[in-house]
Amino acid sequence: MIRAAVWIFWKDITLEFRGRELLLPAGVFGLLIAMLYGFAFDPTRNGLHGMFPGLLWLGIFFASFLAVGRAFSVEAEASGQLLLAPIDRGAVFLAKLGLNVLLTLVLAAVMTPAFSILLQVSLPQDTGGFLLVEALGLVGFAAAGTAMGALSAQTRLRELLLPALLLPFTSPLLLGVVSATEGLYGQQAASSSNWVLLIAIFDVIYIIVPVLLFEFLTEV
Amino acid sequence: MLDGRSLRLTLGGRAILRGVDVSVGKGECLGLFGPNGAGKSTLLSLLSLQREPTSGRLSMFDGPAHVDDLALRRRLGYLGHEPGVFLGLTGYENLVFYGRLYRLDRVGERAMLGLSRVGLGPFRHEIVRNYSAGMRQRLGLARAILHSPDLLLLDEPHQSLDPQGADLLDAEIRAQCARGGAVVFASHEVSRGYQLATRLVVMRRGKVEWQAEPPAAAEDEFRRALDGVLGGRAE
In chain B, which residues have their Cβ closer than 8 Å to the Cβ of A7? Predict the structure, then answer.
């Protein structure tokens, strides 16, 4: 399964490197969100510091949504031929998950400093903790997005179905990453480690369950 | 090699296939004909293990056939309405990619050979987006036969091909049957299909209306059967 996943991942990365159909629009959208937040919120205003984790994560989620939701669209170009190959369909999920994790990491690497600069809020001093929260949060969002993307890819109403599924299902993750980031700023009494644990559990569930059920997800 | 009995498929409450019997032996080439909506493509989607029938029994290579049977998938080659290739990859990269999914050895060599067989050797390093529709169809054929499948399933394979490409496709179909494989194809090319098929099946509204084996069935008899379902519009 792993070997097939690596080849599918290689194919997707090659296509994305040549076409830039996923990362470029999502990246531009993410930077536009950062700019609009910069215009909309006065950086000198009291309380903006406390809103920063929520603004940052909502921005990253919305921008990532554009990339993650379209990871399966490339398969329509080849008429779903990939699903006729003699490979475990879990390999397709793992490959798409790898692509989506990479895309969201690149997006976050661009958007996080942009948000910090435009809203004039410094990042948490615990850089290691912040990177851990970002990595776990993005893996969780990518995993949920990959599963929901597969589920909605076959439907005519996918543009409606994907946000209707993905955004509610990732709300516990959003709560977790925002709270964990607030914890890193020392704004909440509760330690961020509990939230990190919640995010990790979310990640494990959204990786393991789709691998097992991917055959079903692609046939719905 | 392939045996389907009373195959039925209902989608969204509508019966698409209504009890189709189909069988193909080694070296046989079964041609499916009929008007749009007759169920030819749907039948091919069942035979290529894209979906399970609602009812009926499908067996292949002396065993039951199910969509999750990976060993069975390895023995099938399928070319649908679209060539099933990635436009952002080169022709060579497409074949290497599929070859790796089928775990072929000497995959680069096979890919080069496959491209040469369909006349795309000189264009192997061009991005497929720059190929014409006919070239993409040729690449789709090369993809479908790359792993030397025992059963080749082709849905309107002549579309987009120029006469030279269509002759090349016919030669590949004959070669597949000559080496003991089998082919099932759906086509609207009546004369060409008659020449190719060792058994002719005419479908209408999800059922088999007529079937015969040439040359026992003369071409005019086949055309009359086809006229019957097309309303006198066979080419």
Answer: 97, 100-101
